[in-house]
Amino acid sequence: MLKFKKTSYIPVQGKEPQVPEGLWIKCDGCGELLYKEDVKQNHYVCYKCGKYFRITTRKRLRMVADKGTYEKWDEGIAGEDPLSYPDYPEKITALKERLGIDEAVTCGRCTIHGEDAVLCVCDGRFLMGSMGYVVGEKITRAVERATEQKLPVIIFTCSGGARMQEGMVSLMQMAKTSAALKRHSKAGLLYISVLTDPTTGGVTASFAMLGDIILAEPGALVGFAGPRVIEQTIRQKLPEGFQRAEFLLEHGLIDGIVEREDLKETLAKLIVMHRQVDVKEALIPNRGKERTEETARRSREMVSAWERVQRARAQERPSALDYIQEIFTDFIELHGDRHFSDDGSIVGGIAFFDGCPVTVIGQQKGKTTKENITRNFGMPSPEGYRKALRLMEQAEKFGRPILCFIDTPGAFCGMEAEERGQGEAIARNLFEMSDLTVPVLSIVIGEGGSGGALALAVGNEVWMMENATYTILSPEGFASILWKDSSKAPQAAEQMRVTAKELKELGIIERIIWEPEPASHQNIEKIAANMAEEIRRFIHWYLPMDREALAQLRYDRFRRM
Question: 109 - beta bridge partners?
Fold first, then answer.
């Protein structure tokens, strides 16, 4: 946290105090008068209320690009005046001279903490950052060169939308930039979009929302139609915070909100995490151990199936996030299904495992009543499964192994889940996961309830913790349907063969993660270390395989069942 010195001025006796021009600026958020140098040191964020100031292209480049590395591309492209709009060419010339920039976007190559990238910065001062022919052409050329040079692209958006003065020529830039980004994506390259205030109209409906990762600055206004247009159209007052970055995060449209002071480091880390996995570099040493079955276990207590069910459901049992934090490093959580919501019952993102980037997805329960409400007691909605699938498809693009932690009583069965296509969402995961060409490992760490669990369990291998369960439905449900008596759940658990040992005998799972005693926060470190060793062997075994062969092995696994 930056600390600011208090600046005081002692007036000369008999004279009014004089404040040098330009030394102070007023915050539009709180109305306070701020010392400009303090605002600069605070990354152009109000140190009274946290309001983000809009910043110039030059300031943005200073914040993000390594000093002296930014090389501008495609300056001086001749503009268009397709409508012969009065005084339009003259206005463009005047803006170039006054602002010292070539157009509403500046594109070029730089390094970010030593990582090469193509960086484009939109500037709202230039005709509200609107996208005309030159803006579209500069972005398209930058993306094309990035594709040729196999570089990631980062675009800071700030725009009022399409440029009215160029009519349909401006609208065509939406399709042109999107087409260039599609080719960049098909080449397996990373595109990060960073939404700043404001990002609206045709820019939102094209390159702004097409990132592999979409980030936003706090409080940024982002939307297709602006709030004023919407209010005038529907004659309704919009809710507080409508179309702000926080609203988009809640509604699953962006991956995250990043403070300006953390942005450079976040971008550099994301670039590293999205490199195509080099199998030779990423291979983890096998430490001289062969892939064998579990070693003989010492005699253990006899535990009933119903007791296993109770242990799997125990409140103190570690969650997916607990294992993620123990096993992986540098986990960056990504949010949302990009359509409707960010389902808290499924968490996912990118992390490192022994230096190898991996995609990690987990079904997450809460520890408190409030957390359980946020996480919907670990019961995913369609948006959760669609978020998981989005992250898996991203892992496929970048060649990252996928690790899923399963812990759910089942998919959410509420009316709203049905309205939004719960069955289709689960079916789509089964359909797409079956053909992924990267290694997929699924581990049942608690409850594995029905299709809600299977939607993350179409893996090359499926493992279970010793006290986990994997069931067609809950024992209570089984007893109610077949015996018309839910109180017979303990007998149902025995009949259903829900335990790890029984399911391994049936060939449903490949491996059991033993628990010296029921998993808890007191022994998670030891259990996670054992789990990490097994994961290490899994990656070592599968990652070098031909990618089509990986998908075939997964198909064959289920074909045998």
Answer: 71, 118
Q: Kindly report the number of other CB atoms within 10 A of residue 472's CB atom.
A: 12
Residue type, 164: M
Q: At how many degrees (to 10) do helices 133-148 and 167-186 cross?
A: 10
Residue 289 has pLDDT above 80, yes or no: no
438 contacts 402 by C-beta, under 8 angstroms: yes
- Following DSSP, what letter does each residue of 45-70 receive, concatenated? B-TTT-PBPP--HHHHHHHHSPTT--
Q: Where are the alpha helices (DSSP H) in 333-438?
A: 369-374, 382-398, 415-419, 422-433
**Residue 75 CA from chain centroid, whole number:** 33
Enter the DSSP assignment of 285: P
130 exposure class (CB count in 10 Å sphere: 0-12, 13-18, 19+): buried
Q: Which two tokens stand for residue 444?
A: 């049942």
> Are the C-beta atoms of residues 359 and 392 closer than 8 Å to each other?
yes
Cα 467 to Cα 446: distance, rounded to the nearest angstrom = 7
Question: 385 and 412 in contact (C-beta within 8 Å)?
Answer: no
pTM equals 0.90
The length of the chain in residues reads 561
Cα atoms found within 13 Å of the Cα of residue 67, Cβ hemisphere only: 0
CA distance 489 to 480: 8
Q: Specify whether the backbone of 211 is left (phi greater than 0), alpha (psi in -120 to 50) or beta.
A: beta
Q: Which residues contact 292 (CB under 8 A, 6 or more apart)?
A: none
Closest listed residue to residue 384, CA positions, set 429, 430, 322, 448: 429
User: What tens digit of pLDDT does each residue of 387-410 get?
Assistant: 999 999 999 999 999 999 999 999
Write the CB contacts of 362 (distance below 8 Å, at least 6 apart in sequence): 319, 320, 321, 323, 324, 346, 347, 348, 404, 405, 406, 407
Three-class SS state of 72: strand
Cβ-contact 204, 183 below 8 angstroms:
no
Of 382, 404, 393, 391, give the one whose Cα is nearest residue 320. Answer: 404
Q: Which helix (H) or strand (E) holds 360?
A: strand 356-363
DSSP assigned state of 262: G
Which H or E run contains 463?
strand 461-465
Measured distance CA(112)–CA(70) in Å, rounded: 10
Q: Give the model's confidence band at 287: pLDDT under 50 very low, under 70 low, under 90 confident, else very high.
A: very low
DSSP per position, 368-380? SHHHHHHTGGG--
User: Which DSSP symbol is given to 171?
Assistant: H
DSSP at 402: E
Per the CB < 8 A criterion, the answer to whether 142 and 122 are in contact is no
